[in-house]
Amino acid sequence: DVKVTQSSRYLVKRTGEKVFLECVQDMDHENMFWYRQDPGLGLRLIYFSYDVKMKEKGDIPEGYSVSREKKERFSLILESASTNQTSMYLCASTQSSFGYTFGSGTRLTVV
Amino acid sequence: GQQLNQSPQSMFIQEGEDVSMNCTSSSIFNTWLWYKQDPGEGPVLLIALYKAGELTSNGRLTAQFGITRKDSFLNISASIPSDVGIYFCAGRNYGGSQGNLIFGKGTKLSVKP
User: Fold this and answer.
1) How far is CA B48 from CA A1, B65, B84, in A?
2) Largest CB tally within 10 Å, which of A80, A83, B13, B26?
């Protein structure tokens, strides 16, 4: 089975901190995605990547950046965390036209 | 961004009851997928549909790809407590951003023993 691993299940960070959320997949998938999930708003796409060093903005990229230096790893960066970035963050990967495989999520609290 | 209309938003049912939820879109989709998210976990794929009219089952779950390609439904028969979670529909429209999935907002299912 494809595995998508997010490095932290829970994180608590202070306002203004730089935050790194890491995601690793083990099946050589080309496509990787970062979503945030908030009650009543569903899954909102932040950034995605179709290849190493490639990145595309999703629907809500403001306040975030990403890095994909290796095919298996896709990092989400909060340059200066704010309280409105408190959320559940989900990473996903896929190969071509198949469904996404999600990680278990990182619940980030910014205080 | 584009979103699917998923309904209902939430359901409170008794164990043993059947459940039905659906998704509609204003545009045509080539793929419909249904995911389940357990509390505190990431979504897991339940059923994938690739052809208009396709009806697919996975245990007590049945999903259909609408003939118009603009809708899909998911049925759960004889619900049990472990069915609790959020169910998401997702569609792929190749007119969109390189075939990315578009997600509904989810249906939150609660099952009373």
Assistant:
1) 16, 9, 20
2) B13
Cβ-based interface (< 8 Å): residues of A facing B: 4, 33, 40-45, 48, 50, 56, 58-59, 90, 92, 97-105, 107
pLDDT of residue A97: 65
| Calpha distance B59→B57 (Å, rounded) | 6
* Cβ pair B34, B13 in contact under 8 A: no
| Residue B90 forms contact with A (CB below 8 Å) | yes
Q: Do A42 and B42 touch (CB under 8 A)?
A: no
Higher pLDDT, B19 or A40: B19
Measured between alpha carbons, how far is A88 from A109 in angstroms, rounded to an integer?
9
Q: Mean pLDDT throughout B56-70?
A: 96
Please report the DSSP string for chain A in residue order: ---EEES-SEEEE-TT--EEE-EEESS--SEEEEEEEETTTEEEEEEEESSTT--EE-S--TTEEEEEEETTEEEEEESS--GGG-EEEEEEEE-TTSPPEE---EEEEE-
Q: How far apart are CA B79 and CA A29, in angstroms?
A: 35
B48: helix, strand or coil: strand
CA B8: distance to chain centroid? Answer: 11
Nearest to A44 by CA among A31, A53, A55, A57: A57
Q: What is the dihedral of CA A53, A104, A98, A54, to 10 degrees?
A: -10
Across chain A, mean pLDDT equals 93
Checking if the pLDDT of A46 tops 90, the result is yes
